[in-house]
Amino acid sequence: MERVPILKIGDILLVSIQVDMSDQTAVALQEDLAERIVATGCHGVIIDITALDIVDSFVGRMLSTIASISRVLDAETVVVGMRPAVAITLVELGLSLNGIRTALNVERGMELIAAERDHDRHDEFDDGSDVEPTASP
Amino acid sequence: MTSGVDLSRPQAQTVGSDEDVVRVRQLVRTVAVAVKLSLVDQTKVVTAASELARNTLVYGGGGTVEVTAVDNGRRPGITIVFADSGPGIADLELALTDGYTTGGGLGLGLSGARRLVDDFDIQTAPGQGTRITITKWSR
Amino acid sequence: MALSTDESGRLADLLTSRVDRVIQRWTEVVGEQLRGRLSQAELLRQVQELHRALVDALGKGAVDLAAEEATELRAVLAELSRGQARQGFSATETATGVFALKDALLSAMEDDQSTRTLRDYVAFAAMVDQMGLFTFESYVHTREGLIADQAEQLLELSTPVVKLWEGVVAVPLVGTLDSARAQVVMERLLQTLVDTGSPYAIIDITGVPAVDTQVAQHILKTVVAARLMGADCIISGIRPQIAQTIVALGIEFGDIATKASLADALRHVLRLTGVESGRRQSRREA
User: Given this structure, which CATH class describes domain C162-276?
Assistant: First the structure.
């Protein structure tokens, strides 16, 4: 079984999914990431899916789970590089990727995480008050 | 990506493991490209195939997938048949409802796949296995 | 209805032995129909070419138009009707170019008083009918192709995605949006977001006279898809009638930002990006 490599760049873990993942590979990635977050103490995870030509409900659920797990471990997850055709298909499929933050590319993803950490540091008690209302569930 | 697929006859792929689901996706992608589906339509049909092939594996206990390039005289398309001899589905209407799941998934497999294709046909009965046929036409 | 081998041979004989008469009558009938819209020389060239192709096919033993031996004849017919379709001749005019051969055959056979003549004429006429119908089909096919090409060109023309500011792209939609066009526009918009790395898109519908449920759904789906990709969409220029339609149809725009004009939308985005340096706008998916 192939494993997806996890790179550490500064305070961020970068996962660039390059292969057409089997479900087992996806589950393994989920486990590996949780371990690496704890081991490195990183506060941000960027999952780059630029190379993925489809995201089905299994991979979608994996992304949601990773986001939830890393939140519990005090790390912010951003999914970056989703292709337009993939996004259109996900909307049609009815998958909304609950609770996942997204950005257009790795650079924007890093900015998002940096701003988020910054925000948290400056006003711990004011989280979310100036945030656009989130979409209905 | 596998090349040199013979489009004149159906391509079969057994589904018995995780890796086979990946192979189904690749086969469907190859044929979808060959019949000149748009990029978005390719993505939709490959995603639908991924969902249904996983159902065949998880709920049907494995089975076969057959991919055929078709032509209705006006436009080309791709037809995929997923067949298993598993327990079948007792309440079809319920199984086709968004969010309904028996396997711990998101419950979007059947209902979602149906939204992604043009034609969707399902034949099933308890103890009789399940046979799903989907078609996506080129626009 | 295929010709017998004998009939095919006799038709070939007739066409060659009375070649002058056939071609003269043929061009006459077609010429009357087209009333000078095709030069005499061009007309004669077309008729001669058809005549030659038909004789060739029959000479090789073709008994109907679908035969292997008639491949070249079919090509000539298809080429002829393609040309006519492009030059704006009507379907009737194009098909008449072939059907006129019946007149020509009749005039060539008039002198022959034998009983076989009528039977032959009916068989020959059936062959000409096949050719005429084939011409008609090719004509329609060409016209359909032309229409599809034009529709595509129109789509290209009418759906520009423009960069409005650093990180902001806009699609000014003009004219009636049908489902197919809405889909193309939206795909192109999403692709432009990726290509330019712009996290904001403004969809301006000032120039759209009406919105139906399907089109509204397309716009909504695009906004959701853009969010999945990490970009925000703002819809601007909703006219009063469209706002009424949207509410009457029960379409839920939810938390999608809407602004009265493109200028307002741009101001809104710039304010957001200005704020962003200190506090990043959160794009939490719901």
Answer: alpha beta
Per-residue pLDDT band at C159 (split at 50, 70, 90): confident
Residue A98 is nearest to which of C226, C255, C285, comparing CB atoms? C285
Rounded CA-CA distance C106/C117 in Å is: 10
Q: Domain segments of chain A: what residues?
A: 6-122
Tell me the H-state helices in C159-212: 179-196
CATH number given to C5-155: 1.10.490
Cβ of C282 within 8 Å of Cβ of A128? The answer is: yes
Q: What are phi and psi of C232, to 5 degrees?
A: -110, 140
**pLDDT reading at C286 higher than 70:** no
Name the one residue in this structure whose structure tokens are 């009749």: C106
The predicted structure's pLDDT at residue C36: 72
Which CATH number describes the domain made up of A6-122? 3.30.750.24
In this structure, chain A runs to a length of 137
Give the CATH number for residue B104: 3.30.565.10
Q: Mind listing the pLDDT tens digit for each residue in C131-148?
A: 999 999 999 988 888 888
Q: How many whole angstroms separate alpha carbon C56 and alpha carbon C27?
A: 20
For residue C230, which residues of chain A lie inside 8 Å, CB to CB?
78-80, 82, 101-104, 108-109
pLDDT tens digits for B42-86?
Answer: 999 999 999 999 999 998 999 999 999 999 888 999 999 999 998
Using a CB-CB cut-off of 8 Å, the residues of chain B touching A99 are: none
- CA quadruple C46, C51, C56, C57: dihedral sign: positive
Q: Would you say residue B21 lies in a domain?
A: yes
Q: What ipTM describes this predicted complex?
A: 0.86
